[in-house]
Specification:
Elements: H1 2-30, H2 33-58, H3 70-92, H4 94-101
Keywords: Membrane, Transmembrane, Transmembrane helix
Length: about 110
Amino acid sequence: MDWIKHALLVSLRTALYGVRMGLWLLLTLLRRPIQFIALLATAGGLFGGMIIMPAILYFGGGERGQGFPLGMYAAFIGLGFVMFIVGGILSVFYDKILFKLQPEDREVYYY
């Protein structure tokens, strides 16, 4: 019985840590709107490209698996990864891109 209690405490602590990190990330990104949009595009690409679209394609036909061929499924998973990578690159190089576009706004992002 102790191991169940210990597992519940560990999962609760992990969940609270995840909520805290999520709130910190949200507050940080709200100060940087372009990064926030990049994160939303990344999440949308992952969710849409890897979960929703393949499911629609796979179960779209009359019988299961008759919607589209497996190659289309793989293509949408790849699209999800591409969106994830593009969003990540935008997030990482955000400051450098901003400095080239608007050097006068650079001092706002020093912390």
